[in-house]
């Protein structure tokens, strides 16, 4: 662990090394795009006010897409098993609940559905839903769009939860990092950089924003993790994800 007397010499590197406050759990009612694995993992974690937690947010209603692989009817309900590449989930409906929108009559095995439901957490490590709606996917671009949406919402929720917990962050350090991030994003948002398919090189960014290599690398890594920039032709070229 670094000696406190060396903090001034390592002022810039400490920005990433300093422990951050543990994000608080968001309690805003939501309609969350997820993968099945996200829900499965959530069942192994501690509940918050009786609800599952994904991306530091309480889970209310979710939507996901998956292939229908199995139908298990019983005398009181029917379980539909879906698989999305990350895991399997059982979605349950009752005969008297068939007034919602669905394309499961008849069910089409090996076809993809966009489903909406409320999570059940009866068994640890098992993903399950109370099914609210099911739509047969006829345009497979919907599958790609769903996974991109899931990634984007996941990053947004993590950022919101972290912001709600940033009460003990030193204002001067946070302000410096924020200023550098904003300067990089503003530069990448210029018309010249938007029209350049390769984006801006790491060296160009350093020269434009006036920062050293270590600081630039750390802040760009943060922006990559936050989903605000992405690499183009290699790991040394960057573009902004903003419209």
Structure description:
Keywords: DNA damage, DNA recombination, DNA repair, DNA-binding, Nucleus. One of its GO terms (molecular function) is DNA binding. It is found in: Nucleus. The chain has helices at 14-17, 36-42, 141-165, 171-188, 191-195, 202-209, 213-225; strands at 31-33, 53-54, 57-58, 61-73, 78-83, 88-93, 112-120, 128-136, 200-201, 229-231, 237-240. It is α+β, with helices and mostly antiparallel strands. The chain is elongated, with a radius of gyration of 23 Å. The two termini are 42 Å apart. Residues 4-22 and 168-173 have low confidence and may be disordered.
Topology:
Layout: H1 14-17, E1 31-33, H2 36-42, E2 53-54, E3 57-58, E4 61-73, E5 78-83, E6 88-93, E7 112-120, E8 128-136, H3 141-165, H4 171-188, H5 191-195, E9 200-201, H6 202-209, H7 213-225, E10 229-231, E11 237-240
Parallel strand pairs: 1-4, 6-8
Antiparallel strand pairs: 2-3, 4-5, 4-7, 5-6, 7-8, 9-11, 10-11
Keywords: DNA damage, DNA recombination, DNA repair, DNA-binding, Nucleus
GO cellular component, one term: nucleus
GO biological process, one term: DNA repair
List the uncertain runs: 4-22, 168-173
Shape category: elongated
H/E series: HEHEEEEEEEHHHEHHEE
Arrangement of strands in the largest sheet: 4-5-6-8-7
How many separate helices?
7
| SS elements, strand count | 11
> How much is the radius of gyration in Å?
23 Å
**Broad structural category:** alpha+beta
Q: Please give the share of residues in helix.
A: 25-40%
Main β sheet profile: 5 strands, mixed, barrel
- Tell me what portion of residues adopts beta-strand conformation: 15-25%
User: Span from first to last CA?
Assistant: 42 Å
Instruction: Please tell me the overall pLDDT.
Output: 81
Subcellular location: Nucleus
Protein name: Replication protein A C-terminal domain-containing protein
GO cellular component, one term: nucleus
GO molecular function: DNA binding
């Amino acid at each position: 662990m670094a000696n406190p007397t060396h903090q001034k010499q390592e002022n810039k590197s400490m920005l990433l090394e300093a422990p951050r406050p543990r994000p608080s759990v968001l309690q805003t009612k939501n309609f969350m795009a997820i993968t099945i694995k996200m829900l499965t993992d959530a069942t192994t974690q501690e509940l918050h006010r009786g609800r599952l937690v994904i991306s530091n947010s309480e889970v209310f209603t979710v939507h996901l897409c998956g292939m229908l692989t199995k139908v298990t009817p019983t005398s009181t309900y029917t379980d539909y098993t879906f698989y999305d590449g990350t895991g399997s989930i059982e979605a349950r409906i009752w005969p008297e609940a068939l007034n919602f929108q669905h394309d499961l009559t008849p069910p089409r095995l090996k076809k993809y559905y966009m489903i909406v439901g409320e999570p059940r957490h009866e068994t640890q490590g098992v993903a399950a839903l109370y099914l609210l709606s099911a739509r047969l996917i006829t345009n497979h671009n919907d599958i790609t769009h769903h996974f991109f949406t899931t990634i984007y919402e996941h990053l947004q929720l993590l950022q919101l939860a972290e912001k709600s917990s940033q009460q003990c962050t030193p204002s001067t350090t946070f302000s410096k990092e924020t200023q550098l991030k904003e300067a990089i994003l503003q530069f990448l948002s210029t018309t010249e950089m938007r029209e350049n398919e390769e984006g801006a090189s790491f060296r160009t960014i350093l020269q434009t924003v006036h920062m050293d290599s270590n600081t630039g690398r750390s802040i760009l890594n943060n922006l990559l993790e936050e989903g605000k920039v992405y690499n183009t032709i290699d790991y040394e070229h960057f573009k902004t994800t903003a419209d």
